Amino acid sequence: MEEQVKRIPYGKARFEDVRTGNFYYVDKTMYLPQMEDAGDYLFLIRPRRFGKSMFVSMLRAYYDIAAADRFDRLFGGLWIHEHPTLLKNSFQVIYFDFSLIGTGKGIEDLERNFNSYCGITLDTFAETYAKFYDESFVSEVKSMVTAGDKLNYINSKATARGYSLYLIIDEYDNFTNVILSDGGKEMFRNLTHASGFYREYFKIFKAMFCRVFLIGVSPVTLDDLSSGYNIDWNISQDPRFNHMLGFTETDVEVMLRYYKEHGKLRTDADIEAMTAEMKPWYNNYCFSQECLRDARLYNCDMVFYYLNHQIAFGKPPKEMVDKNIRTDYRKLRMLADIDRGNRREDRMSVVEEIAANGSITMKLRSSFPAEHITEDENFRSLLYYYGLLTMDREVFGELRMVVPNNCVQEQYWTFMRDYYRRSADMDTIKLSEDFYHLAADGEWRPLVERIAVSYRELSSVRDASRREHDLQGFFKAYLALSPLYLVRPEIELNYGYGDLLLLPDKARYPEVAHSYVIELKYLKAGASEAETEKAEREAGEQLRRYAADKALMRLIAGTALHLITIVFRGPEMIVCTELSAS
Fold first, then answer.
1. Could you give the CA distance from residue 206 to residue 74 in angstroms, rounded to a whole number?
2. Residue 305 burial by CB count (10 A; 0-12/13-18/19+): exposed, middle or buried?
3. Do 531 and 553 fall within a single domain?
4. 564: closest CA among 531, 520, 529, 532?
5. First-last CA distance in the chain
């Protein structure tokens, strides 16, 4: 019988569905023994769309005593099938997905929704494991009103019969992050401190379960709930688990070869070229300082999105960013608006710096309570945990964090354009026309002048001390609006850093005929003519040096290179010239 080609598990989150539905699965089971060695109570943070739900679903299937008769079917062909641990299929598993809990309008609604969801889940637990208990077990669990009572009853019966319980919570921090955004720190504090019901549940958890695994996006909740919990719970930056979620480049190449060998990709499909195309968009994640020199990780969902399109249409998607990802920039808005009035401008300044430069230096905090979330280092750390920054290298005891890839960079620039639009209007239809002439005819001046006029509008309502910061971010955010170009801020060129490279996206738009390196200078409003001439001269020297960069020549091959000098004095553009690239 001919083997049926495996389907792509795009949007799939249940391990059992993937394994029984003939979907492609990237094996992560070799991490199970290491997790057992790491401890009984574990906590892991990873960004969205990194396969968290799939992983915990696999974890559940492996340890569930009720799934023992399906072990061969679910795990056949995977690493763990040939290397099972002693704990295989030895627990009754309570599994919560807190992303399914509605927040409501206040703490009372939240408690009611939380209790209702947990109660339904525990009723299902009773039905699943009914055969392990006496006949009244299911009815007794269902007769209890509160989830806390149900938990205590289940624990007492499991203990009496010698069964071990394993707690797995997916998105443990989901609704608390929503509260931080909608209700502020005070509501969050009422939830997690003193007699807050969420804190009370966590007290029950530690005493009840033989093993616990929590996974989420941010460290805020655990720190607020972790009185009496051991710090060794947190394996988020443990180098042993750096590659446990996400795809390595080898994973991606093996997957692409599988679909090519099975006739799903074009016969002339270039696997190396496809990987190179995905890399700047989906790759570059690192989660442990000890692994800074190791292979970087790809976002799982984005790889499946790209592959889906290649199989369906025989070519890469025109839009490399999945529309479902585009809305993730709202996370930036949520983080910036937490406790809205408190230090919001400081947080916006951090976001602007990252958007403009593509990097920031910081000390990564492994956890912090909610009342300190607006502090500078904590806010920067949250950007990392949400996948909006990733580790690049160590710098004098701190971490240089960078925007991981083009996909995330687009989120920053989308957020910044929304932010700037409150103060400066921009005719995006006219801007699109300007981009066409920029790309097709080399007519760059109308575009630059249109952005400069809007920047002047922005400057009229902004603090003068922030104008230089605004200038870099404003130009880069709007130059990144067109899909014709990949915008590279602060790119290293010939032992210097160019302010801005507009690199044609030739893979999708081969007709683009012009590329640009822009050097952007800012002078205070009172700067003299001599200072202006000096800035223009320095910009010209830098551009000529950049133009001699051999790597740049390879990147822009087949296009005409333009070297643009722009100098602002205060809010006014006073120099806008092109140097000869020869």
1. 30
2. buried
3. yes
4. 520
5. 64
The answer on 397 and 266 residing in a single domain is no
pLDDT per residue as tens digits for the range 255-283: 999 999 999 999 999 999 999 999 999 99
Mean pLDDT, residues 104-130 taken together: 86
Residue 184 pLDDT:
59
Q: Which two tokens stand for residue 167?
A: 């707690």
The sign of the CA dihedral 413, 50, 167, 364 is negative
Q: In whole angstroms, how far apart are CA 449 and each of 211, 444, 468, 480?
A: 62, 9, 17, 16
Domain check: are 26 and 133 in the same one? yes
Paired strand residues for 487: 502
Instruction: Please indicate, yes or no, if residue 511 is contained in any of the structural domains.
Output: yes
**Rounded to two decimals, what is the model's pTM?**
0.89
CA–CA separation, 145 vs 331, rounded Å?
Answer: 35
Look-up: residue for tokens 């605004």?
470
Are 260 and 5 contacting, i.e. CB atoms less than 8 angstroms apart? no
| Mean pLDDT, rounded, for 12-36 | 96
With beta carbons less than 8 A apart as the criterion, state whether 523 and 510 touch. no
Residue 205 CA neighbour count, 13 Å, CB half = 29
Per the listing, tokens 């968009």 go with 281
Q: Are residues 403 and 460 in the same domain?
A: no
Whether the pLDDT of residue 105 is over 80: the answer is no
Same domain, 89 and 170: yes
Token pair 């739900």 in the structure block, residue: 53
Tell me the C-alpha distance between 6 and 3, whole Å: 9
**Per-residue pLDDT tens for 487-541?**
877 676 766 676 788 999 887 889 999 999 999 999 998 899 999 999 999 999 9
The phi-psi region of residue 314 (left if phi > 0; otherwise alpha if psi is between -120 and 50; otherwise beta) is left
Q: Give every strand in the sheet of 92-97, ordered side by side.
A: 41-45, 211-216, 165-170, 92-97
Distance from chain centroid for Cα 282: 10
